Amino acid sequence: MTISSSLLLIATLIQFQGLLCCNAFIKTVFPRIDQRLSSNGIIHEKIARSIFSIDSALKSSLDDAPSDVDTPYAQIIDEKAALQAKMNLLLLASATDRGQSATTTEKDQAIQMIETLELSNPSIAPAAMSTGTWELIYSSTQLFRSSPFFMAGRAVCSTEDQAKQYDWFCDMHRAALAISNIGKVRQIISPSRMTSEFEVKVGAIPFLSDFTPFRYSGGLPVVIEGSIVSSADIENVEGGNAWELYMDTVEIKGSNLPGLRQILDQGLKLRSRSLAKLLEDNVQNYKTPKPLFRTTYLDENIRISRDQDQKIFVYRKVSENMEPTGYSGAMSDLGVAKLLEGFNDAVTKFYI
Asked: What whole-number distance in Å separates Cα of residue 133 and Cα of residue 123?
């Protein structure tokens, strides 16, 4: 399946999911750090209970405690502990391929490190301050769910069962593309726009030994490349701690597939708002989803965000640039020119 056909299949399935879901979307309350501290350096229990999402067991224990007792749940994280958590998180992200190969234990460790950083968040209104180019370095879920397209798809689900079905669909989507290699995953943020870039490579001529008398290990070093680019308008909400996303377009840029590249460069894209309007006009109670994407930690080079299900995305800041990547220089030759150039440099060494 080519990248383009896969994309169209995703769009069809997700919008069909929208037909099955009603217009309400789940609003979850995410832990937000309050700057007010009690005199002994511990956030008071009343403040902690208002700004932290605490599990039921902890809530029960807090309810039984006197109201004037400080809770250790939200202790101040000193600078040294925060720095150590940050370094450990970066090491874990690197060792687990951005979380894709993380074990359950490693995921639990990552959550502890992330919560430590969130408790030490140095930024007020972090979402509003997150302009620039950001590269995904860790995720607790599938990497492509960093895209506003998939967040919008999740937002149409109004029940827990529907959310689980959507999670299953995303897992199966990744399994179906297991032969692909995920490259850079970026978010480019301007004051009013989010552009998500998901670069991927797929083997173009795999395992010809199944169809020919030739015997060799693996496929040929010829790959299909491209970037799935989705864009959404963003509006700062919750005092600048979150964005409300209004999904706009999905397109493929930088494809090296001859023929398809020329079609794509002529402006072929999925315009989700046109499809959403069609649904709103013809499906009773359907409303275009506008999911929330919260930023819970921000410093000069790291950003942590959570979607409505508290799935975690950790980004590193690449630059202050707010313009999407230009892919016009990518050649539509399946990488053959680069392959031949490499062969010449390594083997024939023939130069004019």
From this structure: 18
Residues in the chain: 352
- The separation between CA 146 and the C-alpha centre of its own chain, rounded to angstroms, equals 1
Pair 113, 92: CB distance under 8 Å: yes
Percentages helix, strand, coil for the chain (3-state, rounded to 5) are 40, 25, 40
Strands 270-271 and 242-253, bridge-based pairing: antiparallel
**Tens digit of each residue's pLDDT (9 = 90 or more) over 168-199:** 999 998 888 787 889 999 999 999 999 999 99
CA distance 343 to 251: 33
Nearest partner of 157 among 293, 15, 22, 292, judged by Cα: 22
- Give the predicted TM-score (pTM) of the model: 0.72
Cα gap 125→56, rounded to integer Å: 28
List, for residues 302-330, the tens digit of each pLDDT value.
999 999 999 999 999 999 999 999 887 77
